[in-house]
Amino acid sequence: MTVKLEFAKSPLGGAKFGGTDKAVLIQEVPFTPGFDLRVNPDSPAFLAVVAALGLVLPTTVGKVARNNADCIVSEGEKPAENGISALTLGPDWWYLTGTADIQALLAPVQIAHHISLVDVSSQRTKIEIYGPSAKDVLSHYWEQDLRDEHFPIDACSQGLLAKAPLIMWHCCENCYLLFPRASFSRHLWTALTDASVEYL
Amino acid sequence: MLHIPCPYCGPRDETEFHYGSEAHVAYPENSSNLTDEEWAKFVFIRSNPKGWMAERWVHSAGCRRWFNVWRNTINHEFGPSYKPFTQQPKSPA
Amino acid sequence: MSTVNFTFDGKQYSGEKGESLASALLRNGVVYFTDSSYKDRPRGVMGLWVEETNALVNVDSGAGEPLKPATTIELVEGLVVRSAQGVGDLPDTRDNSRYDKANRHVDVLVVGAGTSGLEAAKKFSDQGKSVIVMDDKPAAGGHLTYLGQPVPAELLAVLDRANVTYLPRTTVQGMYDQGYSVATERRTDHLDSNVHTEMSRIRTWHVRADHTVLATGAFQRHLVFANNDRPGIMLSHAAATYVSNGANPFNTAVVVTVDNQGYRDAIRLHKAGVKVAAVVDIRKKVSKATKKSSRKAIEALGIRLIKGATVVDTSANLVGILSSVTIGQAKSDLRETITADLLAISGGWTPVVHLATFIGIKPTWSEKRAAFVVKHHSQFVSTTGMLAGDFGDDDEPAVFFGPKLTAEQGLVAFVDYQRDATYRDFKRAIDAGMRSIEHVKRYTAIGTAHDQGKTSGTVTMGLIGQAIGKAPDEIGSLTFRPPYISIPFAALAGRDRGLLSDPERTTPIHSWHVASGAPMEDVGQWKRPWYFPKSGETMHAAVLRECAAVREGVGVMDASTLGKIDIQGKDAGQFLDMIYTNMFSTLKVGMSRYGLMCGIDGMVFDDGVTTRISENHWLMTTTTGGAAKVLDWLEEWLQTEWPHLEVYCTSVTEQISTVAIVGPKSRELMKRLAPSLDVSNESFAFMENKHADVAGVPARVARISFSGELAYEINVPAIYGLHIWESVMSQGADLNITPYGTETMHVLRAEKGFVIVGQETDGTQTPDDLDMNWIVSKKKDDFIGKRSFSRADTAREGRHQLVGILADDGSYVIPEGAYIVAGADANTPPPVKHIGYITSSYDSAALGRSFALALVANGLARKGEKIAIPMADRVVTGVITDSVFVDKENTRRDG
Ligand SMILES: [Zn+2]
To answer: Chains with ≥3 Cβ pairs under 8 A against C?
Structure first.
């Protein structure tokens, strides 16, 4: 669904803090499309989904498969057209995001198979946190292990950051994408910027 | 904070979970045929042992899956966790 | 070293930057620091670090902090402190410091940067493990610094390795199961005031380590004899360390010892220029090695040795500072008095067992070491160094805690300095039959002060043993609890203060509500507008105005906080039939239905409206507070009971923003907002849903009413929520569109007798109790809760049932929660049995009077009965009524 920008407002209004030339940059990336996909990985429906998306969905919770770049700051990479990233949130649950028309791709599968595809583009916003101190800022609130050997690039996880539920994706070096629920996004912004000031 | 072993996500902080009482208490097939006593047993009576107990937890802030796990009610030590409808591992006792 | 100025008890001094306040005071000749808390006894400094029992101060400069040992305060320019006399108080200023928290996962946590801690760090670092070394002192070295010895350079270099993180000034405060430790790092107090102002003062570390090495070292302990508390009496390693660093106000020392440490310290005192008048050693016989090393060494320096003796008493000068020491032979009545202004006590070592006992490890008594030690190795924890009983040089300690004392001497022989607890207090506990350390502690208060028995614990156990002829480990075990040292609450709170203490959840329309000046009501973590007062308007007036506007014109409410769950799959209808008490599988596509959920016990659990979007696609709404709970509940049944059902649930609470326009004029407004939509009753019926463009964005409009009035709920992707709200406000301006908040919503629904789960219910109400039998399906074989409705207790007569209450005085709003008693006669003599209580109570614009909902025993059969409500200042009388007060025939919902 194309966003009617003249009527739309993102939860954080595209807020930005810090910078790429600083120890940390935090910015909202408004109106990022997102879909919750539920499908049994042992079913023909799963194969149909994979075929329709042209992307092999990982079946290990916490893994990301993608054919595009999703962060703005990663140098030299531009979001590919028709790109899809699939974050494995549960054994039968993926968060799909990207520039491709995911709804259109999966519409035929929905008719023929038992899957659930739910547009959650407004449910979550996207916050990019980047820089040499990004991990330090996150570790003030994130209880899970952020060491690269335990949370490498293209790992994702759900959890609580400053008590707010979100999806975190380690998308590239020193860069993390956060997908918090919209209602928590102001709180999260306050928390992240508060923890960042010491590094700026 | 305790770490609870989610069978899908690995050990995670207890704040990510909600408790679901004793495991392996199945919903009775024909509840209308049960006596009041049988029904009350299902609704209210749990074993509440001192020591190892198989419990149900849900990884609410994570994968959203319900699972079973052995826990020692004396010292909160966690034993193996396992998915519903899979073979229950032996009690660590 | 640079010189800095500081103030102690109003007087200016200077000292070396970074040295401890205790050291600086000694350097300035201050020996008498303060008076004791209970007995006003003059006291000086005893120790070197957190074991300090006497020299407590209140810090007034910087962030301010009460009751800090002067031994742990690093000198900075402008430090202002007051002696505390054992009573802490805070400066009356706001602490603007930042506090924070950080999580860290690591392979190995090493607690303590002494020799053994550094060796452990080296070992694990060599194995390629990531290591954090936390040490509470400003510099590494641990026990070596007590001995005045340098730390080997190759050990210090370990701290610079890439896989080693060294955190000085970081105290591990608590240790818990599974390798979890909590530590506080003091980050700014030792810095000049011009540091980065955003730097947190104290950081609380939450560490998860695969393995933790406890290398916590040991404290020296004192001996219990008469007048053992005077300024000038110190632990020997403390005296030797201060004096060796040039902080030396002393002329003549006596060293009293039970081990070879006293000899080492006597030599250091001697070398620093203090005349050591005697070393008094309780041990008559010692090993050959001790003879050859320790005893020979002091002999070579011409220091007198008094064997088989100890100190029994001391005297003071007019000010109260130590002036002489009385020595007694252990086995005779011979006494000798020696003039001295320093008495250095070496009473043996007490390993720091705290962290080990936090996780339930019991220390064991080592006769050889005269100490409780912890030798432990498991998956999560191991111990090393002095804690594990490795005391390095053979100290050959005697198991001795103090001489035999007369009753009179016992009055001034201190076991716990901070509590001013004496040998006499201790003896009274023993004579009263106390034998366990836990009992003696509670009888005497020993070990309950600021230092929590860091040094007095072992001394007490030793004394009990001496008194009743048992070894210390037969008395009990040392048990400590976190935190290891006292810490400001602010440090524990970290960033969880103010706004960040709990998440505030907001809707897309929140900024409009705030700008309009609406006070907010907390509904769980949600911020919802409570009412929208016009300038100068009271809440009461605002709510009456809002209610009237909805019943007579049109109002608008932000309903975005309702929980929403997207449910898909061919078995969803069957699933909902089990979840709700009423039937859903028969619902037509495009229609909505109100449903009630019960637990297996038959008690109402949540409610809401569920809509059939398409054949296999449903949208459930839950209460604002119940969303997460309900989703867990649905998933539990799907995952653990009925995995064969093809149903998927997805939370969409924040995906959809809901704006409800409510009131007889809402149809006109809806027409304006969505010109393409036929809003007539015929084509858009109650409980029907329509897709339409509303104010230019795609929306689902539902004819759902929670007030009894004609109403439309406009559901849009949340990014358009604010746009819809603003469009409603502008398009409805000439209709006098009135925004209303949660209070008006509550009044309107209560006038209709609609319950709120959590207000009319508390988990003990069946649908029958709520007079909602109509929603319980008689056709379905089963649904969750059904079987419990026929349980004896749920089916019995006399259960509390939902009714209305009208006070005879319609201007009086009965407080919610008020108890109801039967009969209008308020003069019934007590005890008066209550028959129920008020659940909701408001003033009503529609009724022109107050009204209430209540749960009353057998209430449905008691309509018309008089009741009374005893309040503190009056007895309110009234009558039980039906719970529906407005539009009983449901004529208004169609406009
Ligand atoms: Zn999980």
So the answer is: A, B
Tens of pLDDT, residues B3-42? 999 999 999 999 999 999 999 999 998 888 999 999 999 9
Locate the chain A residue with the closest alpha carbon to B13. Answer: A143
Contact A89 B12 (CB under 8 A): no
Say whether pLDDT at C242 is over 90. yes
Tokens of residue C612, six digits:
């059939």
For B17, nearest residue in chain A (alpha carbons): A159
Please state, rounded to an integer, the average pLDDT across all residues of chain C.
94
| pLDDT confidence bin for C196, thresholds 50/70/90 | low
Q: Which CATH class is domain C3-83?
A: alpha beta
Which residues constitute the domain of residue B49?
3-27+40-82
Are the Cβ atoms of B27 and C641 closer than 8 angstroms?
Answer: yes
Residues 6+ apart with CB under 8 A from C681: C894, C895
- For chain C, what percent of residues have pLDDT higher than 90? 86
Give residue C830's pLDDT: 73
> In CATH, which of 3.40.190.10, 3.40.50.150, 3.90.480.20, 3.30.1360.120 is domain C510-560+656-740?
3.30.1360.120
Domain C749-781+797-881 CATH superfamily: Aminomethyltransferase beta-barrel domains (2.40.30.110)
Fold of C563-651: Alpha-Beta Plaits (3.30.70)
Which residues in C have their CB inside 8 Å of a CB on B? 177-178, 180, 208, 360, 600-601, 628, 631-632, 635-636, 639-641, 643, 781-782, 786-788, 790-792
How close, in Å, is residue B66 to chain A by CA atoms?
Answer: 11
C-alpha distances in angstroms, C636 versus B90, C639, C852? 24, 5, 37
Q: At residue C783, does pLDDT exceed 70?
A: yes
Topology of domain C222-347, CATH: FAD/NAD(P)-binding domain (3.50.50)
pLDDT at position A75 is 47
Q: State the pTM of this model.
A: 0.94
Q: Which chain B residue has its CA at the smallest distance from C628's CA?
A: B60
The answer to whether A159 contacts B61, with C-beta atoms less than 8 Å apart, is yes
Asked whether residue B7 is assigned to any structural domain, the reply reads yes
B90 within some domain: no
Q: Residue A95: closest CA among chain B residues belongs to which residue?
A: B63
Domains and CATH numbers, chain A: 11-30+125-200 (3.30.1360.120), 33-121 (3.30.70.1520)
Structure tokens at C796: 């019995």
Residues from chain A that touch C719, judged by Cβ atoms under 8 A, are: 3, 8-10, 31, 121-122
- pLDDT (tens digit per residue) in C59-87: 999 888 999 999 999 999 999 999 988 78
Give the domain CATH number at B8: 3.30.2270.10
pLDDT tens readout for residues C288-330 = 999 999 999 999 999 999 999 999 999 999 999 999 999 998 7
Q: Which segments within C773-848 are labelled E, that is strand?
A: 800-807, 819-822, 834-844
Please tell me the distance in Å from C787's CA to the nearest CA on chain B. Answer: 6
Picking from B8, B13, B16, the nearest residue to A91 by CB comes out as B8
Residues of A in contact with C570 (CB under 8 A): 114
Question: Is the distance from CB of A20 to CB of A73 less than 8 angstroms?
Answer: yes
Residue B32 lies in a domain: no
* ipTM, 2 dp: 0.98
Considering its fold, how many domains does chain B have in total?
A: 1
Domain ranges of chain C: 3-83, 222-347, 510-560+656-740, 563-651, 749-781+797-881
What does the pLDDT look like over C377-432, one tens digit per residue? 998 999 999 999 998 768 999 999 999 999 999 999 999 999 999 999 989 999 99
β-pair partners for C505: C526
